[in-house]
Design a protein that fits this description.
- There is one protein chain.
- The chain contains 5 helices and 5 strands.
- It is globular, with a radius of gyration of 20 Å.
- Helix content is about 35%, strand content about 25%.
Amino acid sequence: MRASTICLALVIGTTTAVSSLAGESTLTRTFQPLDGRGSAEIQIEPVMCHDWYAHGDYLAALSLIAAKNIPPTNAPKAVEDINLASAYGIHVSASSIEKGVLHVTLDLTHTQRPGRMGYSTVQVVRATMECVRRLAAERHWLIKSLRVAPEGDQEIAQAVEDFQTYPKDKEFPWR
């Protein structure tokens, strides 16, 4: 009896461990605020991302707004991450009460401006908000609320207020 209990516990533990590591990947379209390089302007572009957990969380495309983006290149040296949300340390997450109704959070806890970038943090936050808006519009999601954590920065608080009150069917004035 004891041996069968131990064996059953091992089987359940192994199955749980394997299923938690399993994933079904796919390419997922999202939007990212990219460094314009020569143009010295932020460019919001649709990008394809490898989404490892595509079948587990339909909100993954939101978190991929802040995924690293190191493009293919023919440059003689390696290029850096051109996704400003990622380079500045912004994390995007969401929860939903019902499918398609979202509460979005931009986590700025570890945000810092990279020395190689000339954009202010508020510019990148506003561009990231526009990426959220474009993705939500494309997927027919309703953004019930957007919050930024931690709170305290007056310029960013104003950007959040602007985003909350702006019509979601029109481009957010992020520039």
